[in-house]
Amino acid sequence: MFTQYKYWEPYISPYDPCKPIKVKSYATPPQLYMGFQPYGLKQFSTPKEALCHGTLWPQLYSPYPNPHKGGEQGE
Known about the structure:
Number of domains: 1
Number of helices: 1
Organism: Virgibacillus pantothenticus
Protein name: CotJA
Radius of gyration: 17 Å
Shape: elongated
Helix content: under 10%
Pfam families: CotJA
Number of strands: 2
Distance between the termini: 24 Å
Order of helices and strands: EEH
Strand content: 5-15%
Strand order of the largest sheet: 1-2
InterPro entries: Spore_coat_CotJA
Structural class: little secondary structure
């Protein structure tokens, strides 16, 4: 199983004056894992729903995570 979210632990210098961020993350877009857009891909049921998600296809939707909540789903 793949995840769109990647995590790593950066080097933390003992001389860094700022509070360290021990785990950093970034999101990769779902189209990186889809070689091409297959024919007949499922679509959102209404235009309003598609506009709210920013794409017509649920498989290409990627929410922005909220770094302050610690979860992978944007709120």
